[in-house]
Amino acid sequence: STQSTWGLLGVKSDAAQQGKVQKLARGEILMVNIGSMSTGGRVVAVKSDLAKLALTNPVCTEIGEKLALSRRVEKHWRLIGWGQIRRGTKLDGDKVVSSSNLGE
Fold first, then answer.
1. Which of 42, 70, 80, 81 has the highest Cβ tally under 10 A?
2. What whole-number distance in Å separates Cα of residue 14 and Cα of residue 60?
3. Which residues of 48-68 are buried (b: 16+ CB within 10 A; e: fewer)?
4. Strands, DSSP E only, in the chain?
5. Is there a contact between 30 and 22 (Cβ–Cβ < 8 Å)?
6. Whether the Cβ atoms of residue 58 and residue 1 lie closer than 8 Å to each other
7. Residues 25-81: pLDDT tens digits?
8. What letter would DSSP give residue 91?
9. Any idea of the CA torsion for 95, 97, 101, 103, to the nearest 10 degrees?
10. In 3D, which of 75, 66, 42 has the Cα closest to residue 56?
11. 34 near 59, Cβ under 8 Å?
12. Does residue 91 carry a pLDDT above 80?
């Protein structure tokens, strides 16, 4: 899991109105972009400007790295905010790689 601080953006709808982005909700699925890597993330907890995310795939990154958050809006992924990694779980390299995620 990854913990990050974040900010939210406004989103334009088809009616050309400036809409407010809803706050992150526990259990919500987001697209998380960290560097050139994209992965899914489930919101585990939200407190003030901190969110704890459980990523669907491991990501090679560092503390302090910037990330972008996208939410599914009308069948499209829309950028809703950005953040910075505060802490995470380090995985042992031998446990990460499996034949199912090698992209053969």
1. 80
2. 37
3. eeebbbebeebbeeeeebebb
4. 2-8, 11-12, 18-19, 29-34, 37-47, 50-55, 66-73, 76-88
5. no
6. no
7. 999 999 999 989 999 999 999 998 889 999 999 888 889 999 999 999 889 999 998
8. -
9. 180
10. 42
11. yes
12. no
Nearest Cα residue to 81 out of 61, 63, 66? 66
Question: Alpha-carbon dihedral of residues 54, 76, 85, 92, nearest 10 degrees?
Answer: 40
Query: Does residue 21 sit in helix, strand or coil?
Result: coil
Structure tokens at 35: 């560097």
Q: Give pTM, 2 decimals.
A: 0.71
Amino acid making up residue 95: K
The amino acid at 64: G
| One-letter amino acid of 3 | Q
| Nearest by Cα to 21 from 67, 86, 70, 83 | 70
